[in-house]
User: Which sequence fits this backbone?
């Protein structure tokens, strides 16, 4: 298991990457960075996606209309233990679904 300090560094880097991707995605959404490693994304239709660091489990969690997803760091990637999908791909799919328009997250 990844040590807590290393996990927090990796999670901070991924959350910053998500933030930068959301700024550049062009979709109709607002997002807010909250204390403790939380990103709250709100869409024009009132729906939300919450992305948060879960230090105890050493995971980043995504809560979206389509469900909840958990990702662990594996090298340079964040991977779902459920199906091997990558965090940015799942987040892009969820944002696309809730924004109602195609969204690409870098």
Assistant:
């Amino acid at each position: 298991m990844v040590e807590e300090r290393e996990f927090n560094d990796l999670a901070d880097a991924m959350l910053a990457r998500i933030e930068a991707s959301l700024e550049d995605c062009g979709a109709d959404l607002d997002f807010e960075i909250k204390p403790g490693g939380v990103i709250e994304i709100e869409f024009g239709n009132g729906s939300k996606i919450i992305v948060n660091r879960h230090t105890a489990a050493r995971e980043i969690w995504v809560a979206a209309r389509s469900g909840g997803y958990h990702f662990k760091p594996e090298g340079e990637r964040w991977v779902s233990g459920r199906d091997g999908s990558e965090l940015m791909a799942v987040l892009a799919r969820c944002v696309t679904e809730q924004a109602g328009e195609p969204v690409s997250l870098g």
Notes: The chain has a mean pLDDT of 94. The CA atoms of residues 56 and 81 lie 16 Å apart. The chain has one domain: 4-99. The longest strand covers residues 67-74.
